[in-house]
Structure formats: C-alpha cells, structure tokens
Automatic annotation (TrEMBL):
Compartments where found: Cell membrane
Protein name: Protoheme IX farnesyltransferase
Pathway the protein contributes to: Porphyrin-containing compound metabolism; heme O biosynthesis; heme O from protoheme: step 1/1
Enzyme class: transferase
Lineage: Bacteria, Pseudomonadati, Pseudomonadota, Alphaproteobacteria, Rhodobacterales
Reactions this protein catalyses: heme b + (2E,6E)-farnesyl diphosphate + H2O = Fe(II)-heme o + diphosphate
Superkingdom in the source lineage: Bacteria
Function: Converts heme B (protoheme IX) to heme O by substitution of the vinyl group on carbon 2 of heme B porphyrin ring with a hydroxyethyl farnesyl side group.
Organism this protein belongs to: Paragemmobacter amnigenus
Family assignment from sequence similarity: Belongs to the UbiA prenyltransferase family. Protoheme IX farnesyltransferase subfamily.
Length: 310
C-alpha cells in the first residue's frame, strides 16, 4: 500500500504544479479520442453541449490523474521519469492531490450528467474508478497483467464521447474501445523495455521485471498482431470508410514492422541499439492512435460533402 504520510509536508505549489497533477500530456490523447467519439456519432450535438461535455471529460480524466499521483507518490518518488512530479517533489501534498482528484471527479461527473446524459456520466465515473482504484490501487502493484486489464480505463473515453451524443453504447463505440484496449499493451511495454530499471527499482511488477525482456518482446508482437484486425475491421462499420481503411492498413503494417523489429532484438546486442528501436516504436504508438482517430474524424467531416464513409 502506498505510504502517503511521507508526502504531507506542505510545499510551495504554483498553478503549474496543479496542472501537472492532471497529467496533461497523456490526457490530451484521451480527450482527443473522446472528442472523436462524440463527433463521429450519428446524432448531432449542439456545439455548446459538445464543448461542455468534452470539458467535463477532460476534467474527469485530469481528476483520475491526480488520484493516481496521490496513491502512487511513493512509486513516483523512486522512478527517474516521475520523481519531479508535484507530490514527490514536495510541491503539492498527497492530501491536496487527493482533494483535487475527488473534488474534480465529483464536479466532472455531475456536470457531465447535467450537460449531456447520465449514461455518459456513469461511464465517466466508472472510468475514473477503474483507473484510480482498479488499476492504480490494485492491479499496478500486484500483477504483470496490470496494464492489460487496467488499460480498459484508457479505452473508455471514445465510448463516453459517443454516449454523450447518442445516450447509447453501440458496436462502433465498442470497436473504438477495443482499438485502444488492444493498443495499450504494445504502447506501454515498448516504453517499459527502455525504462525497465525504473520499474524494478520501484518494485512495480511490470512484465519486463517479472518475466524479462524476451517475454515482453513476444507479448508486444502478439498484441500488435491481434490489434491489426480490430483496427482494420473498424473500417467496415458506419464510422469507417476508404480514408480510414487506407490509414489503418498503412499504420498497422508499420506498427507490425516495429513490433517485429523489437521481437528480433536480443540482449547480446548493444543496449543503445535496442533502446533506439524500442523508443521509436513507443513514439510511433502515439502517432498510431492519434492518426486512427484522426481518420475516423476525416470520414465524418467529409460526409456532408458526399464523401467519407462507404
Ligand atoms: C494502462 C494504460 C497505459 C499505461 C500504463 C501507459 C503508460 C504510459 C507511460 C508510463 C508514459 C510515459 C508518460 C510520461 O511521460 O510520464 C506514457 C506516455 C503517453 N501515453 Fe500512455 N499509457 C497507457 C494508456 C494510454 C492511453 C489510453 C493513452 C491515450 C489514449 C495514452 C497516451 C499517452 C501519451 C499521449 C503519452 C505521451 C506523453 C508525453 O508526451 O509525455 N496512454 N504512457
Ligand atoms: C476519462 C478518464 C477518466 C480517462 C482516464 C484515462 C486513463 C486511465 C488513461 C490511462 C493512461 C495512463 C497515464 C496510464 C499510466 O499508467 P501509470 O499511472 O502507471 O503511469 P505513470 O507511471 O506515468 O504514473
């Protein structure tokens, strides 16, 4: 369990420190996928309602980041990548992070319910719970499958966006969920390969720590293979079309090449060469997701002009 008492000394926090609590960089892609889910839905949403809905999803996503930083302060303090975060750096106390997380969560869920509908608000509440409690408090410290199951949290946002517009869950929103769900393991494990020491120093049972780099490479390849038909299959639903199909085929072929290049690496090779491959696949994973959702958006944007879709 997280020893949060060590992080209760008040520090001198600026506005920027509170922004950092919300994990803005990671959440930008979360918010983009929610926005796409809302915009590609077959039901038009008044721009003010759409703007408000995405704002509250962003607030909820940020709140879940603050809750994660509250609980994980001890882990974050040990890892090079995260030790400068506001709680381990002593800028914001753990109690403040908890208060920000709980306060913003409550506001975001209630306001989304009022602005859009209670299905989307319920999904947002469940997503915050899943990331903060199921992933951060339970799975992260207990199983190397942490990010496979916990990754579901990051996959919900487009489903929330779709529900904001339609008040329903549909095959399209389930496919957008599945796309992110299957993408998360290769996205994260590519990073974990070149951050392995961080996680072992912090005692987090990531696959790289518990099963080693060879097994992690195998897992990346398998998940990337399983991801491809999900991603390409979405082309043949109401949110797909020729632009998305072309993008999905190209992006999945490239991601598979990357996973294959990682798979071929071995420990006898120079560490710097291995890390270069792993880093490039991690970076590409971000473009991969952004461009898939960008392609969904392009299909929807072109529909009024008689193009886009099938
Ligand atoms: C359990 C699921 C996931 C895990 C464990 C994970 C882990 C990570 C980690 C450790 C980083 C480096 C973060 C940092 O700079 O502090 C990262 C970066 C990133 N992740 Fe993920 N991720 C997950 C899911 C997602 C999802 C669902 C999205 C968006 C849809 C996402 C988007 C990003 C982005 C945009 C970055 C780059 C941030 C930057 O520029 O610093 N991740 N991820
Ligand atoms: C709408 C809503 C509530 C969205 C939440 C989306 C969500 C759960 C995204 C997960 C992304 C993420 C930063 C995982 C990091 O794992 P980590 O926390 O172990 O990474 P760290 O080591 O950087 O802290």
């Amino acid at each position: 369990m997280s020893d949060i008492r060590a992080y209760e000394q008040p520090g001198e926090a600026g506005f920027g420190d509170y922004v950092q609590l919300l994990k803005p960089r990671v959440m930008s892609l979360v918010v983009f996928t929610a926005l796409v889910g809302l915009l590609v839905a077959p039901v038009g949403v008044h721009p003010v309602i759409a703007f408000a809905s995405i704002l509250f999803v962003a607030l909820g996503a940020g709140a879940s980041g603050a809750l994660n930083m509250w609980w994980d302060a001890d882990i974050d303090a040990v890892m090079r990548r995260t030790k400068g975060r506001p709680v381990p750096a002593g800028k914001v106390t753990a109690g403040e992070a908890l208060a920000v997380g709980l306060g913003l969560s409550g506001i975001a869920v209630v306001m989304l319910g009022l602005a859009a509908n209670w299905l989307s608000a319920g999904l947002l509440a469940f997503t915050i719970f899943f990331y903060a409690v199921v992933y951060s408090m339970w799975l992260k410290r207990s199983t190397p499958q942490n990010i496979v199951i916990g990754g579901a949290a990051g996959a919900f946002p487009p489903m929330i966006g779709w529900a904001c517009a339609t008040g329903t869950v549909s095959i399209e929103s389930v496919l957008m969920f599945a796309l992110i769900f299957m993408w998360t393991p290769p996205h994260f494990w590519a990073l974990a390969l070149f951050m392995k020491d961080d996680y072992s120093n912090a005692g987090v049972p990531m696959l790289t720590v518990t099963h080693g780099r060879r097994s992690t490479r195998n897992h990346i390849l398998v998940y990337t293979i399983l991801l491809a038909p999900v991603a390409v299959g979405a082309a043949f639903t109401s949110i797909g079309g020729p632009i998305y199909l072309a993008a999905a085929v190209a992006l999945n072929a490239w991601f598979l090449v990357g996973a294959w290049r990682i798979w071929k690496r071995h420990e006898d090779a120079a560490e710097a060469d291995n890390y270069a491959v792993e880093k490039s696949v991690f970076r590409f994973s971000l473009y991969y997701l952004f461009l898939h959702f960008g392609a969904f958006l392009a299909e929807a944007a072109l529909k009024p002009y008689g193009m886009g879709g099938w």
